[in-house]
Write a structure and sequence with these properties.
Length: 255
């Protein structure tokens, strides 16, 4: 692109042509390139400016009161229409509601395990404590997803929860190992469901939802899987009976 060349007086705020006619309007300083001519007694500057730069200085590039007239930015007036909703697809909304149901289902199973190990003829207080806390944690996950749903202008829709088993006895493995293996499978299933939500978010270009799932759930889920995998491995070592009692004591005093 050819550049026009002008003289610039150090003492004048405006550039002038060689025939001393002023350049009007003066271009903004950010659009000019000034080069000090070394050796000049009057310290003149050379101003390199393109005709496009001058025209850009006079045009408005952002007109908010025009742009908010677009349909997607108008504030809805119907009473039941969400006000905060933006770039939030129905598929994402449904995926969050499904994940809420997953978390509640897992919470329900863990609560049933708590009730089993708290029985008077089982009396494994450490396992009861562990599964009670796990149940509460899954419910907190469901609530976190509910809050997110509302933040995005979605609507929480609670699905039915299937009743879990109430007995966790297993002739070969014993109840402690059987319950912990079941917990490991449930945590892996939860992780798989979370990855599904993450895929839905990416499919819909919903970077905010993808970031939410990744930062608030996926790392914790991987750590939960590792923790329970460790317990399964240790319970396989100790077998049934006395070893389980010691393991229960460890869980009971685990902070
Ligand atoms: Fe969870």
């Amino acid at each position: 692109m050819a550049l026009a060349c002008f003289k610039f007086s150090f003492f004048s705020p405006y550039a002038v042509r060689r025939n001393n006619t002023p350049l009007l309007p003066p271009p903004p300083s950010s659009s000019l390139s000034l080069a000090n001519i070394r050796g000049s007694r009057r310290r003149n500057f050379v101003v390199n400016a393109s005709p496009q730069t001058n025209s850009a200085a006079t045009s408005v590039i952002f007109e908010p009161f025009e742009e908010i007239k677009k349909d997607v930015l108008t504030v809805p007036i119907a009473p039941k229409v969400p006000l905060a909703r933006q770039n939030y697809q129905d598929e994402s909304e449904a995926a969050i509601n499904e994940q809420i149901n997953v978390e509640y289902n897992v919470s329900y199973v863990y609560h049933s395990m708590f009730a089993y190990f708290d029985r008077d003829n089982i009396a494994l207080k450490g396992f009861a404590k562990f599964f009670k806390e796990s149940s509460e944690e899954e419910r907190e996950h469901a609530e976190k997803l509910m809050k997110y749903q509302n933040n995005r202008g979605g609507r929480v829709l609670l699905h039915p929860i299937k009743n879990p088993p109430s007995d966790f006895e297993h002739f070969e493995k014993g109840d402690a190992l059987y319950a912990m293996e079941l917990a490991l499978s449930l945590e892996k299933l939860t992780n798989q469901k979370l990855l599904n939500v993450y895929s839905v978010a990416n499919h819909n270009n919903d970077h905010e939802l993808a970031h939410f799932i990744q930062s608030e759930f996926l790392r914790d889920q991987v750590e939960a899987i590792k923790e329970i995998a460790n317990y399964v491995a240790q319970l396989r070592m100790v077998g049934k009976g006395h070893g389980v009692w010691h393991f229960d004591q460890k869980l009971h005093h685990h902070v």
